[in-house]
Queue: 3 jobs
Job 1
Amino acid sequence: MRAHALIFLGAPGAGKGTQAREVAKCYGIPQISTGDMLRDAVQRQTALGLAAKARMESGKLVPDDVVDGIVEERINRPDCKSGFILDGFPRTISQAQFVDRILAAKGEGRPLVLDIEVTEELLLKRLTGRRTCSVCGEIYNVHFNPPKVEGTCDKDGGKLFQRADDNEATIRQRLEAYHRQTSPLIEYYRGQGVLLALDGDRDPEAIAKGLLDYLSKA
């Protein structure tokens, strides 16, 4: 791949994590998310990790300079030498510009940005229909992947539950916030000519095949 960094964008429920894992496995590069990076930095008790932990424990947002530092530290590790995938970062124009500066300093050029677009109706079905096993954590969907017995896990008979934030009102708020926050970011990358929009309404297998075919030629 010419691009050293891949960035996955997509609303909650769009499947960006699923597609990022497929690409990471195919190319042997790490998939790293903001959550993963924060948890890792906190666990290793780095200076930035301790700063992030203090903010999170007080219920405050982790500021850009702390998140940016954690991202920079993570992508400077040896396993990112051949490329890496960012999942959930950047979220703002300033964070996108920060990534651009890091890549430029490394002589790696601009990232390739993959935006998984899914209709709101389908996103609602994916999220409101999600059910999780209380024992093993297996995830089902009452619309697309229902258990054999309603409310019961096929694997271990555990009780299935719905996450508190997987209700329609909360999901609509999350989607509205995502589009408000990410719209400028999409325009930023589109203006650079590095944005690829993917039809996320298709089956995950079809999306992955099309994406991997594209990347093999990019």
Job 2
Amino acid sequence: MRFPALVTLLALLCAALFVLSLLVGPAGIAPGQALTALLRDEGALTMVMREIRLPRAILAVMVGASLGLSGAAMQGYLRNPLAEPGLIGVSASAALGAVIALQTGFAATFALALPLSALAAAGLAVLLILMLAGPGGSALALILAGVAISALAGALTSLVLNLSPNPFAANEIVFWMMGSLADRSFAHVLTALPVMALGWVLLASLGRGLDGLSLGEDAAASMGINLRVLRLRLVIGVACVVGAATAVAGAVGFVGLVVPHVLRPLVGARPSRLLPAAALGGAALVLAADLSVRLVLPDRDLKLGVLMAMVGAPVFLHLIWRLRRTE
């Protein structure tokens, strides 16, 4: 498939799923009524559409695009199809920040305390990773620093849960870590959007560098690509998009791992083309998963992260099996 056709198809798929996301919900609003209430004031119906369904659909696009884009960038930089955005420890650190906010009661002080705490923890993780990896460290040093930060953040999160004297707080922490887009508002959209936008710009600018790096570090350097600047943009960009996504949606896995892996053969394995394709593919996948959450068990609070893990793990195992058969 040609690249423009693929991008157009993915964009149309995202648009269709976005509209469906606006039309599906427990309120049982007819499609015509839903679209009318979205465009003009219809009282309670307009509140449901503009304050509940619309921000949820927008966040699904933002989170999915962020995870897909960051996954493609990580796999391109490390030249490893098994790399994923959580590898540098930002998502685990953002989760730790949110868990601490929930446990200490800070999350109850104002509406955005939880996502802001998660973003602050993600920013601290970036500083630690850059200090540990060093300004001129290799990709291996970056991976090791990320694994160390991720393990530490995971251990501290478990410690908070283990020592929590309040079972209700512990229950809230567990449910938040499962990942969800329910009960999100435009306040969450506006909190995450500036940080994500910065990350999108940084990651989108990596296309030429990642194309050169696919030929090897020496070849990339001979093409005039500054590998230190490339790595700095990558780390900060991934931290922005993944930290913001985790801050507003909790832990949602497998998007940044599976989507680039599926789309890579369709773009000729060129990282510069995979970046926009993976962003659109990730947005479509999260929109579809969030729709499924509302349709599969409408009377139960099925979490987005749980569904993604249940679907993503078998898909990824199938991809690995196909890869082994072609070797």
Job 3
Amino acid sequence: MKTYRLASREGHPEDSIIKVNDNLTIGGSDLIIIAGPCAVESRDLYLEAALLVKAGGAQILRGGAFKPRTSPYSFSGLAQEGLEILVEARAKTGLPVVTEVMDVRDLELVIQYADILQVGSRNMQNFSLLQEVGKTNKPVLLKRGFAATILEWLLAAEHIMKAGNHQVILCERGVRTFETFTRNTIDLGAVVAVKELSHLPVIVDPSHGTGRASMVAPIARAAIAAGADGIIVEVHQNPDQALSDGFQSITPEAFTRMVIDLRRIADAVGRNLPI
């Protein structure tokens, strides 16, 4: 058996399908689109964005209430206020929400609000956090570390699953290389490899994977063609004024056009992108 025995396809040949709520699953023949601003910046701005991405084809809302930032002076989220805004957006749109949990100390709070717990790239090997989210009954979106191998990524998932939670969704978001034109180097080969090695669903983050708004839609199209189970993208009404990651955020109009293209590609590769 592989060292990632629970995540391995050896002991679980069929694709896993993660249930988000009574009407939505991740994995299988249906594709998933997760969208929204990088961070919850204000109530009015986020609620407007939520309605726009829903109209454009999103099935899950994203938004950070706690934001890990390289600079301690950058906007780092609204914390509980941001979580409360996410819940209001869920009520207005009917869409579940995914948000990042950065610290074990915040886990109980985030669980009260989120439908899906995100473990970000910087925390992929925060084993205490992995074990604690593994004790919850919430689906976990596990982003690949920016310097992690595929094996390390799968073993991080194994920590969550070994603690009891098998509802893991893997997310390829690019790795750090010597290239400087893009923020990271998106690894679509990893999507193909992980689909071969593991039964867990895999989605792609073309926003963090490229760091350039102009590249988000082409990489999203390539991800679906490569076999990804969905995408997660950052969408903002005014990217130039965004408090976090505006340079890689696409507008709601661009998002709507992208979803139309993704639906065509889904049809071509025998997948379904629900309307």
